Amino acid sequence: MREIAASTISDHVAEMCEEANIYLGEEEFQALKDALETEESPTGREVLKQLIENVEIARNEQIPICQDTGFAVFFVEWGQELHLTGGTLEEAINAGVRRGYDEGYLRKSIVDDPLYDRKNTGDNTPAVIYTDIVPGDKVKIAFAPKGGGSENMSTVKMLKPSDGEDGLVDFVVNHVKAAGPNPCPPIVVGVGIGGTFDKVAVQAKKALFRPVGTPHADSRFAALEKKILNKINDLGVGPQGFGGRTFALAVHIETYPSHIASMAAAVNINCHACRHLERTL
Question: Which domains does the chain have, with CATH numbers?
Fold first, then answer.
C-alpha cells in the first residue's frame, strides 16, 4: 500500500489553482488561433485578436486570464491502493485552494450562504469535489476554475427517449442560442446525456475537462458533436456576440447509462477561457 501525505495534495492543488488561472492550455489557446484563421467577420476577427492578446498578456505578466477566477472544481481519481495520511482528501484540497488563491492574489468568489447572508468565505472554499475510486496506487487530480457567468448559462432537461437525436440537438442548440453572448463566446459546450437528474449535470461539466476539440471515442457521438457545433456556429452570434462564425470552439459530449423511461440531458457552458489542469501523483 503506497502512502501520500495530505500536505503533498495541498501543495499540488495550490500550484494548480495559480497555474490554471494564468496559463490557458495549449489546446485551448490553439483553438482560439485556429478560429482567427477561419472567422469570416472582420469584427469577429478583431475580437479574437484581442482575446489571444489577453492570453499572452496573462502569461507574460503572470496575472489571471479573467478577473473571475471561478468556483474551484475538482475531478479526482483515487487509486484504491493509495493511502492518504495526515488528513482527509477534502481537507487537503480545500487547504490547497485556500493557499493558492491567497498566494496567487486570485479573486475569492464563494459565499457561504447561497440565499440569505451571502457572506464571502474569503478564501474561495469550499471547493466542489467529485471523487472516483479506481485501480492502482496513484491519484489523478483535474482542476477547473469555473466562472460564474458561464456557469449561470447551464441547464438540465429530462427528455423522453422518443425525442431521439433530433430532440437532443434542438435542446442543446436552442439553449445555447438563448444564452447568446452572456457566457463570453467563443464558448466550449459540455453536453451530458443519460443517467439521473444529478448525474447528467456532472457528465456535462466533466465534458469541459477534455482538451478542446478532442472528439468523442465513439464515432457516433463524435459525429453528433460536430453536427451540434455546426448548428451553433450557424447561428451567427460570433465572438463576444458581435457576429461571425465562431460562436463555439467545440462541443464535447459525455454519456452515462440511462433508465428505460428517460433520457436526461444537460448543458454546461464554458467561456473562451476554458481553463483546466490535470496532474497525476
Answer: 2-20+65-146 (no CATH), 149-274 (3.30.1330)
